[in-house]
Amino acid sequence: MSFQGLSAYRPQMLGLLRIVAALLFFAHGTQKILGFPASDMSPALLTLPWIAGMLELVGGAALILGLFTRPVAFVLSGQMAVAYFMAHAPQSPFPALNGGDAAILFCFVFLYFVFSGPGAFSLDRASGRDG
Fold first, then answer.
1. CA distance 65 to 124
2. In this structure, is residue 84 part of a structural domain?
3. Taking each helix axis from N to C terminus, what angle separates 101-116 and 10-29, rounded to the nearest 10 degrees?
4. Residue whose C-alpha is closest to residue 73's, from 39, 45, 46, 108
5. Does residue 41 sit in helix, strand or coil?
6. CB atoms within 10 A of CB 73
7. How many domains in the chain?
8. What is the pLDDT of residues 62-117, one digit of tens each?
9. Is the N or C terminus of the chain more exposed, i.e. has fewer CB atoms within 10 Å?
């Protein structure tokens, strides 16, 4: 069985991965900053959780659109590395126990976008800024 023919769909699947990952990330920002879905989180203005929420909201929206994908993904990858080591790692060395699985996964998915670019369905590609 050959999977060779699937390579033709690489840009579309990369674009789909970017959109889905960004939608999940964006939801963390809407929860922190906009209170949707409702939660106990309501970070005070200009605190680290508020800054994280703004990065999730604005950066997530930019990645959904595929706008400035590489630099935004670089910043968000760094944010997730910092979040993991500040909030999760001190609780336990095991991600399954410290709740840091998503932070690690977001970190490396976003880092991949730095190198891969946005894939299909992006404003970057439509404008000719990135291919």
1. 8
2. yes
3. 140
4. 108
5. coil
6. 26
7. 1
8. 999 999 999 999 999 999 999 999 999 999 999 999 999 999 999 999 999 999 99
9. N
